[in-house]
Amino acid sequence: MRNSLIILCFLSLTWVNLISGRSVDQDAPVLTDVEKLSRLEFLEKHSEYKERLSEYEKSDCQMFKNSTDIYIVYLPGIEPFAAPCESRIEDGGWTVIQRRLEGNINFQRSWNEYREGFGDLRGDFFIGLEKLHRMTTAHTQELLVFYERSLLETKQEMYRNFLIGSEQEEYVLKSAKSNGLLGFRGNIGKKFSTYDRDNDEYWLDNCAKIYNGGWWFGKCIPEVVASNPNGPYLPEVTSKSRGIVFAGFKGIRAVQMMIRPQRKEDKKDPFGLKWE
What we know:
Blueprint: H1 2-19, H2 34-37, H3 40-44, H4 50-56, E1 70-75, E2 78-86, E3 94-100, H5 111-116, E4 118-119, E5 125-126, H6 129-138, E6 141-150, E7 153-164, E8 173-177, H7 207-210, E9 254-261
Antiparallel strand pairs: 1-2, 2-3, 3-5, 3-9, 4-5, 6-7, 6-9, 7-8
């Protein structure tokens, strides 16, 4: 836990340095400058990388396990896209899929925007539901969530067999197996909802409208919404679950979600609990 705290503090300082002094459009789309961000041409010129390039270029950041940067991901049936890779946490190889740090990006977005992705890849962003679906179906994925309420209170949760359905299935959260943690309590089997696409189980209203962000909502009364990391960025803890919430913790000031192909060996469980 001490190492995790040090890492996340370092990440926070790094992210602040990256975005400080820049004017950020809250409605900015995900970066798409493929030529500027890709290093694949360099790797293709070096024969020792060709085998690894062929194996990993279609799906994730595994090939760039020892590097933290933005790379181009290739998947069948979808255009190549840019994604941040993270190597400094839990043996690296992570593709960052969501990040909240400064509150400078509006996460109350339409269905189409959540499908395609939005934000600043070097700051706050969401990678996009269609990309998530493609990545989680190309290989079995594990999900790591780092979240922070203060510099002295940092937590992480690991999930296995993380799987997202297709758009025809309303991007349903099919699986996220945990070791008894609460992060996705009540979300498994739920369809994704946005303010303009109400797929939740709350017949009185649209949970995405109430909580100001798209998520896999079930019933959205405060006592049930254990997680909504796409909620509005609030500087102070609130009595109701209207801000960034995860695993029942309110007033979260930073969160980062990452996936990578699930390791074949048994993952060491920091809590000593059995995976469900």
